[in-house]
Each structure stands twice: as structure tokens, then as C-alpha cells.
Amino acid sequence: VQLVESGGGLVQAGGSLRLSCAASGSTFDGYGVAWFRQVPGKEREGVSCSSADGSVHYADSVKGRFTIYRNYANNAVILQMNGLKPEDTAVYYCAAEAQLAFFSCPEPEVFGSWGVGTQVTVSS
Predict the structure, then answer these.
(1) pLDDT given at position 15
(2) Is the four-CA dihedral 101, 113, 59, 47 of positive or negative sign?
(3) Whole-angstrom Cα distance, residue 110 to residue 10?
(4) Which of 14, 19, 34, 64 could bridge 49 with an S-S bond, Cβ 3.0-4.6 Å?
(5) In terms of C-beta density within 10 A (0-12 exposed, 13-18 middle, 19 or more buried), how is residue 68 classed?
(6) Mean pLDDT of the chain
(7) How buried is 81 (Cβ within 10 angstroms: 0-12 exposed, 13-18 middle, 19+ buried)?
(8) 64-100 pLDDT, tens per residue?
(9) Are 17 and 9 in contact (CB under 8 A)?
(10) Predicted pLDDT of residue 102
(11) CA 9, CA 122: separation in Å to the nearest integer?
């Protein structure tokens, strides 16, 4: 499956952005999908994930602010980000793996398909 992220940009602290991960070549049915983020010099960090069994999970740093959900009509996985903070600034990546269900967000190495990322910048 090929993944394309969109929706990044520059926003003030407290604002919102809606990231979209669109799939081509396959539907997301049966796929585990995750959002990761990375800043220069740091490891890629798991943000949120949507298991193939329907469960969703969040990093503690974004709980209560971010929401992940599947838009089946558009074959996309959405990350709605509210209450953004400057520390949320990063490149955000979408990742997917077929037949993947989990109880917590897996490590990046588990995912075989990745998008190229979208920049999110939150100004203070």
C-alpha cells in the first residue's frame, strides 16, 4: 500500500490541525495504521495508532488532545490534533502494515509501508 500524508502546516499554540493519511493500491481494511513524528536528532516517536481490530491508542503526551480515526469513504486515516503545543513540532509520518492488530502502538520497525511525512510547526 502507498501512503500519502497531508494537512501539515504552521499553527499557533492552542490551535488545531487535521492530518490525513491516504492509501492507494489497497484499502486500509485489515491494516494496522500509526502516526509517528520525528524531530532532527531524535528517534521517531509513536503518536497514535489504529489497530486492525478497531482499537486505538495514544502516546501519553497527546492523550486528550489528539484523535485518530478511519475515514472509510476516502480510504484515509485521520489524526485530528487539537490544543497544539510547540513541543508537537515535528515531521509527522503515517505507517501501515497488513493484518496487524495490537494492544499498544508497535515500534516503527513493525510497519512496512511509510509516507514521506508532513511538517507540523507550532509557534509559541
Answers:
(1) 98
(2) negative
(3) 30
(4) 34
(5) buried
(6) 95
(7) buried
(8) 999 999 999 999 999 999 999 999 999 999 999 998 8
(9) yes
(10) 84
(11) 8
Cell numbers placing 12: 499557533
- Cell, residue 34: 500509526
The DSSP output letter for 106 is P
Mean pLDDT, residues 32-51 taken together: 96
- Burial zone of 28 (CB within 10 Å; 0-12 exposed, 13-18 middle, 19+ buried): buried
Distances (CA, A) of 42 to 19, 37, 90, 100: 21, 10, 10, 26
The HSE-up count of residue 87 (CA atoms within 13 Å, CB side) is 4
- Which residue's entry shows cell 500519502? 4
Cβ count near 124 (within 10 Å): 9
Owner of C-alpha cell 513524528: 37
Report percent pLDDT > 70 for the chain.
100
